[in-house]
Sequence to fold (276 residues):
Amino acid sequence: MAYRLRQNCRDAGGYHGGHESFLVDGDVDEREPSSAGVPSAFAEETIPVPFNDEDAIPDIFERHGSEIAAVLTELALGNHGIVLSVEGYHETLRERDDYGSLLIFDEIITGFRVGGLQWAQGKYDIEPDLTMFAKIIGGGFPVGAIGGRAEVMQAFTPTGDVFESGTFNGHLVTMVAGLETLQFAKDHDVYMHINDLSERLRAGLQDIVEEHAPEYTVAGTDSMFKLLFTHDEPETMVDHCSAGCKQRPDCPRFELCPKTGADVAAGETDRWKRIF
Fold:
């Protein structure tokens, strides 16, 4: 059996699109489809893994080893967060090379928003085997893309046996719009400007919550940001991560900062919806 490892939607907060193979909840021992209409066979081949739980990775590989075809992850949870990764988590995934599994980065949200033209994988200096992109690279037009190591990409048709095609593949208007957008961003240091604005915004939000709602958490990096309505405040406000949670172990808020999507969901989400 060729397993897929991924962060599951409800418990860990990862989201990789509305596909049968990704709509799975549970853990390595017990899992089921998270949506009506998805056959249970898909859940049998997909192992959900908690985000930021690096201890779970070696255990799963020890149990299933070479049966795992690929590991799919985000560099930061974007759909149910924002939750940044703790130091060493993605390196643990990369270290599974000896099992022959592919490491796939979902940069649908983090791509270009984090790390600019080098994406989040460049910012964190971790190279996957495949990367998924969408949205931003189309210059406002619907788009999706996949890229990676040449020997992996050559497995797709027309050079390989893995079928990949679509009505709008290589759509000229989308390709031109995306290329022009990225070229403009490169020539005018757009990402540096946006990241600076976002840093100032997170810092301002952090000043406000420290004074009025110290139990809340400001999260994000580069041009991503969010205010999380978490429950508990730290004992001290001294030496916090600047301009939002960076998952720094010596930060007084480290143990209180959400580590998974479930942690975010356990916050005051109703209050967040009413106020924001």
Observations:
- The radius of gyration is 20 Å.
- The chain has two domains: 3-186, 190-275.
